[in-house]
Amino acid sequence: MIANLITATERVRRREQKLRPELKESRWTFRKNPENLNEDPRAGLETLTQSNLATGKAYQVRLAFQDAYQLQTLQQARCRLQAWCRWVRMGSKRFGALLTEMEKFANSVEKHMAGILVHWKHRITNAFMEGLNSVFSAVKRRSRGFRSMEYLTTMLYFVAGKLRLPTF
User: How many distinct structural domains can be found in the chain?
Assistant: First the structure.
């Protein structure tokens, strides 16, 4: 979810960069969280966010969405996300076509609100499954040359099950 939001922020920056050349070297500045920036990019970020740019607004929107994940209760999260969606729409009206990507993301959040709120209800994520999927993809890349799906399946069981071959 956050990756999609970062991508939407990047699209806003690219679109606005065509109109405002000062955004040319700011790609990684707007991709990182403020606490992960060094002194030089942090000063540049403060200047850019204060200069009434759509990219600065998109960056603030992204950080506000990330802050919602720090909330403790389901009700707080629901209220914050609904308010966040309204805020994005208001900003979209102000900046017009530059923030359409953010508005699309807000529509996606509203559409999938029930699924997003499961995070607060059960405190679960799909991080383990994403990691396992990455391991399986690596095994599939290594298994080029296996002649059947049976060999691939066996290799997946060995890797995912952390099985050891006996040594004699």
Answer: 2
What residue numbers bound the domain in which 146 lies? 127-160
Does residue 167 fall inside a structural domain?
Answer: no
Q: Concatenate the DSSP letters of all residues of the chain into one string.
A: -HHHHHHHHHHHHHHHHTT-GGGTT-HHHHHS-GGG--HHHHHHHHHHHHTT-HHHHHHHHHHHHHHHTT--SHHHHHHHHHHHHHHHHHHHHHHGGGGHHHHHHHHHHHHTHHHHHHHHHH---SHHHHHHHHHHHHHHHHTTT-SSHHHHHHHHHHHHTT------
Query: What pLDDT, in 10s, does the model give residues 46-95?
Result: 777 777 788 888 888 999 999 988 888 999 999 999 999 999 998 888 88
The model's pTM is 0.71
* Same domain as 147, residue 80: no
Query: Is 85 a member of any domain?
Result: yes
Residues 36 and 101 in one domain: yes
